[in-house]
Amino acid sequence: MDRSRPFVAVLTATLLAGTGITVLSSAARAADADLARNGGFESGLDGWTCTAGTTVTSPVRSGSSALQATPAGSDNARCAQTVTVKPDSQYTLSGYVRGSYVYLGASGTGTTDVSAWTQSAPNWQQLSTTFRTGPSTTKVTIYTHGWYGTGAYHADDVSLVGPSVDPGQPPAPPTGLRTGTVTSSSVALSWTAVSGATSYAVYRDGVKVQTVSGTSATVTGLSPQTAYAFQVAAVNDAGESAKSATVTATTTAGGGGDSDLPPHALVGYLHASFANGSGYTRLADVPDSWDVIDLAFGEPTSVTSGDIRFDRCPAAECPNVESDADFKAAIRAKQAAGKKVLISIGGQNGQVQLTTTAARDTFVSSVSKIIDEYGLDGLDIDFEGHSLSLNADDTDFKNPKTPVIVNLISAVKTLKARYGDDFVLTMAPETFFVQLGYQYYGTGKWGGQDPRAGAYLPVIHALRDDLTLLHVQDYNSGPIMGLDNQYHSMGGADFHIAMTDMLLTGFPVAGDAINVFPPLRPDQVAIGMPASTNAGNGHVAPAEVVKTLDCLTKKANCGSYATHGTWPALRGLMTWSINWDRYSNWEFQRTFDGYFG
After folding, report:
1. A GO BP term, please (predicted)?
2. d(CA 130, CA 124)
3. Residues in a beta bridge with 306
4. What was the pLDDT predicted at 334?
5. CA distances from 196 to 82, 167, 203 (A)
6. Which one is catalytic: 240, 299, 317, 384?
């Protein structure tokens, strides 16, 4: 799409309208008040909803914080909040901005929506505009945004001055707070509705962790066998009530499909159905260092059939391939030695789209047949390419509604229930489908984004209590923004540190501070790396692998990225692939053994 022509049209229309840019009145009337909430961004993004924003301590115009938002090719980095206003009343919106093509505006005014903008503001520049609300207007949305691909902008000291509306009183505190289902990593809560409340804030150990509109919530990302205290407050336009009485809950043991893995595990993919330049490696010849062996790959008969087949590499392609009997005997021998052998579904060529419930059911039956035939320990989901994408109206990772997402979650839960607590479930998504969700989720609130962005997040979240390991592929990746709001690229320890920190810290999805992807437990996370330069883009030398592990498990030997914690229980490493590591004289395995051995 050519964005240059619409851009000129927008600017011209703004200039010709003649109603957008005004000068603040010399004095506000006595009854006027500043209605913008957290206009100085001193409380983070509280009150604001942003597609790609965060707060920074420099540059700031006043106070200690300011907004920084970074537009991209299909996102103008809009930050907005909805404010209660008086009908048929005059308001002045103002704020200070830095950057190129920065906008400040108001929509939903009931009369003429307005905006002010600057083409270039190398230093703080004030923007202001006025509007009159319509005769029945009670809510107005104020916003800032930049322009597509023009770099980060900053905003500070945003105000909306005009007649205030008596918000009344905050609601009464909720009563009847009680716990429901408790797992190793989550606690379900419910409470009695409060008259006049528009939402509820959920607190864990005194820290607000969720805001919900209903009278129930599930707090996730908890540690096993740990006691937590919960409270709830009711919220309306007047503010937040006092907190409810406290209830406590202790999470259960285990969970997440730990399945007797060692404290630090080495995971690798074995080319079991194809050959390439790395050569065929017999399962019996895989060294004992490998704790989880993913058989690559089970693939569908067609993209949407759900019918998964596992065809072992033919002798014509892999001359040294073992017989089926020897292959099955090797599986049993690995299991007797405490190793886990899984079937990995997908891969680069195995696109799987469970678009119907029939495909879902076929997936369950066909995967079960493979597991049963070979006596495998579980399943690895390695969906890549176009297997997972989000429908335009699917905007909440906690409540997905896209069929390919919903059906995959249902299928995996069915498999888990069929095989029980010892069923090993792992996932190997690409960074585009996970960490990119910090900036973008699906097509975005205003459309135009890649619908695959962040599409693994609802799957991981729905299955987090069943998940043994998540090992994101930290390779074949473009630059990804970390929690420091800097882009990180492959090639060194910083990339792996930043990507893993996001999983262990949690992050707001698409910049929405009240829609946070909760952290995973460290024992659920392994770091995916290529075994050699032949295996994939993003290979790092053993010294960089050691730096990565030192920083994440000991907070030592760190580079420029500052982690949000230290995780000695980080499960370990995953690599593509065992075959390529053998080809490279077992360099990756030796690095792991040297560090954790």
Report:
1. polysaccharide catabolic process
2. 20
3. none
4. 93
5. 18, 11, 20
6. 384
Q: Please check whether residue 116 is in contact with residue 128, taking contact to mean a CB–CB distance below 8 angstroms.
A: yes
Q: Is the dihedral of CA 566, 568, 569, 575 positive or negative?
A: positive
| Distance separating alpha carbons of residues 82 and 88, to the nearest angstrom | 17
Domain boundary among 114, 131, 162: 162
Residue 407 and residue 544 share a domain: yes
Residue 258 covered by a domain: no
DSSP-derived letter for residue 523 is G
Kindly give, in sequence order, each residue whose CB lies less than 8 Å from that of residue 386, ignoring residues fewer than 6 positions away: 351, 353, 452
d(CA 339, CA 378): 12
Longest dimension (CA), the chain: 89
Q: Known catalytic residue: 42?
A: no
Nearest C-alpha neighbor of 424 from the set 293, 297, 333, 311: 293
Give the model's pLDDT for residue 259. 56
What per-residue confidence (pLDDT) applies to 13? 33
In a domain, 375, yes or no: yes
Interior CA angle at 545 toward 542 and 546, to 5°? 90
Phi, psi of 25, rounded to the nearest 5 degrees: -65, 155
Closest CA relative to residue 210, chosen from 189, 226, 224, 185: 189
Contact at 8 Å (CB) between 108 and 137? yes
- What pLDDT was estimated at residue 20? 38
Tokens of 546: 């050691």
Contact 540, 529 (CB under 8 A): yes
The one-letter amino acid code at 19 reads T
Spatial separation of the C-alpha atoms in residues 174 and 240, rounded to whole Å: 11
- Taking 50 as the pLDDT cut, the residues of the chain under it are 1-30, 255-258
Output the pTM of the full model. Answer: 0.64
- Alpha carbon 389 to its chain centroid, in Å, reads 14
Q: Let me know if residue 54 belongs to a domain.
A: yes
Q: Quick one: CA torsion of 443, 448, 452, 456, rounded to 10 degrees?
A: -30
